[in-house]
Every structure is written in structure tokens, then in C-alpha cells.
Design the sequence.
């Protein structure tokens, strides 16, 4: 059973997985609906009910699930103040809290709930995440998606086969969650230059003294760049392990 997200004590640890973009929320819910993926509703009291998304209506602020009026677990869920929904899309776990559950009677019994304002997308990393050497000046070069005439050169904080984190200075125009950057020249060191595309997933404020934000970015279709990136990650890991061993 998944613990309600609004009750977790370490919210900061979940920032990397939180999605608040209305476009991304709708897209994930639509994927769950279209693939007929099972959704498990559960409460802290131990009650659960497995169902399907029946309708998605963001304009009305509502999402609906199929329901059975005589199911004991469902009746108990309807009385709970905390209900969590969990679905799995391949290796991705999608989780969000549900509020205002009500069973609507008609030709089909529908469980209506308030449309989620945020959800969490958990995915296994396909490789280790490494921090490029600061002295190598690791930088991502691309045109700002909302200001095409503005060229950005953002420092790379860390990188994996799944994505990267970039530092966005406070005086730089922000980039909205869900924005796709189709062309980026990624310089990790003198020997590693990669052409990649990515989707901006989330922005997290860093310590106030740093005057900027951490951008979490997910790579899209690495293709030829994947082999070179894997080699860079492997070499960086070996160097970091060797340095750590010398300090012991």
C-alpha cells in the first residue's frame, strides 16, 4: 500500500519526481486510460480497490474511475479522508492523491474525484548518475525554447543515461515544466561533445546563496549519443572511485 504523498515527512526528497505541469498530468492520465492500465486506490486504513480510469475532464476539474457499488473495499475508501492512486506504465510508477471521492449512480457506476493538481512519476534510473568535474567546464548549449534568439550555456550539475541536471542562474528566463528542447550541444569535457534533445521535467530552488535553480531534464531518443555518454559515465565513475580510494 502506498502512503499518501501529502503525509510524507521528507517532501524535499520527492521534488525530483513531482509533476505540476497541466500538460504532463493530462498526458500521463491519458496514457493510463488509453492503455487500460489498472489503477489501485488505497487508504492509510488498509482499504484498497483496483479500477480503471473512466473519464478525464480537466475543464470540469474531475477525473472518473469505474466502480462497483457493492464492493466493501470501495465503500470504505469513499469514507476515507486520504486516498492514493497508483498505476504502472511499464517501468514508470505514477502516483497521486485523490480528494472528494463520490460514487455516481447511473448506467455505469463512476467514482468521481477532483482532478489532481500534481502527481509523481517514479522511474528506475538506467545508469549511475555522475557529477562532471567542475574544472572541465561541463556545459549545455541550446536556444531558450521561449526566446529563440537567446542562446543559453548552462552548467551541467550531473548526468546519467536518463537525463541531466542543469544550473539556471536567477537572472535567466525560466523554462516551463514539460518544455521540449529539440537540439542541445552537450559538452562534458574536451573529449565528449554530444548532440541531444531533452524535456524539462522540474525546477528546484537551490540554496539562496547560489542564486539560481536546478533544472531536472530527461533525455529523449539519445540514439548515437547513448554509447558515447555511457562511456563517459563509466570513465567518470572509475576516476571518482580511484580518487575516493586514495583518501581512505
Sequence:
Amino acid at each position: 500500500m502506498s502512503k499518501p504523498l501529502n503525509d510524507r515527512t521528507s517532501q524535499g526528497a520527492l521534488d525530483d519526481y513531482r509533476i505540476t505541469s497541466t500538460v504532463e498530468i493530462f498526458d500521463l492520465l491519458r496514457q493510463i486510460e488509453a492503455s487500460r492500465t489498472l489503477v489501485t486506490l488505497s487508504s492509510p486504513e488498509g482499504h484498497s480497490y483496483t479500477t480503471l480510469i473512466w473519464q478525464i475532464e480537466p475543464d470540469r476539474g474531475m477525473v472518473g474511475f469505474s466502480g462497483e457499488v457493492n464492493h466493501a473495499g470501495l465503500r470504505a475508501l469513499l469514507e476515507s479522508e486520504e486516498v492514493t492512486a497508483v498505476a504502472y506504465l511499464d517501468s514508470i510508477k505514477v502516483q497521486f492523491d485523490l480528494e472528494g471521492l463520490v460514487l455516481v449512480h447511473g448506467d455505469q457506476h463512476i467514482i468521481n474525484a477532483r482532478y489532481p493538481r500534481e502527481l509523481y512519476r517514479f522511474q528506475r534510473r538506467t545508469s549511475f548518475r555522475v557529477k562532471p568535474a567542475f574544472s572541465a567546464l561541463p556545459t549545455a548549449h541550446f536556444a531558450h525554447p521561449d526566446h529563440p534568439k537567446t542562446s543559453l550555456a548552462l552548467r551541467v550539475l550531473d548526468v546519467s543515461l536518463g537525463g541531466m541536471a542543469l544550473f539556471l542562474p536567477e537572472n535567466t528566463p525560466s523554462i516551463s515544466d514539460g518544455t521540449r528542447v529539440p537540439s542541445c550541444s552537450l559538452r562534458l569535457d574536451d573529449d565528449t561533445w554530444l548532440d541531444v534533445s531533452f524535456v524539462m521535467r522540474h525546477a528546484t530552488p537551490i540554496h539562496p546563496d547560489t542564486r539560481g535553480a536546478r533544472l531536472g531534464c530527461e533525455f529523449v531518443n539519445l540514439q548515437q549519443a547513448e554509447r558515447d555518454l555511457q562511456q563517459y559515465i563509466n570513465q567518470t565513475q572509475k576516476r571518482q572511485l580511484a580518487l575516493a580510494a586514495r583518501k581512505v
